[in-house]
Amino acid sequence: MTTTKKTSERLIKKYPNRRLYDTQTSSYITLTDVKQLVLDNEEFVVLDAKTDDDLTRSILLQIILEEESNGTPMFSSAALSQIIRYYGHAMQGMMGNYLEKNIQAFIDIQNKLAENSKGLYEGKPFSPEMWTQFMNVQGPMMQGMMSNYIEQSKGLFIQMQEQMQNQTKNMFGTFPFAPPPPAEKNKK
Q: Would you place residue 1 in the very low, low, confident or very high pLDDT band (cuts 50, 70, 90)?
């Protein structure tokens, strides 16, 4: 990968000593600083200083690991196990796309709620404290809404999986496969 990225994208270099160097501020930064870039919606790329390999995903995964280890985790062990089971599975690519679209749908719902709530607090966006207060009051309704969305999403995923199975059967049904040999009975 080359460093000829978009000029709006911030370049962070990772050195062999595991330190991160922000080329925009000409200073070393920490994972906490990188997390803040994410929270501030800053676009950035992390490159290995020697090889120019893109390390952005691994740095983001490190941040997620730290967040999951501290405080209240977002993912249950069962959810993480399910995600792991999809690696190497024929549906791996679809699962990533499915999760990404569901996260985007959740963000869209949150943005719509924020937009609709602007009039409630003198046109100011919701702060984290306001969201906590809002969710305490509206939590059950939101959970119901999300449950309905998840059920619809689950139905679409199952439908997609069934369509793929049918397409596979149709595709391979045209090949002349020999039937399996009859099972031999024990002769005694």
A: very low
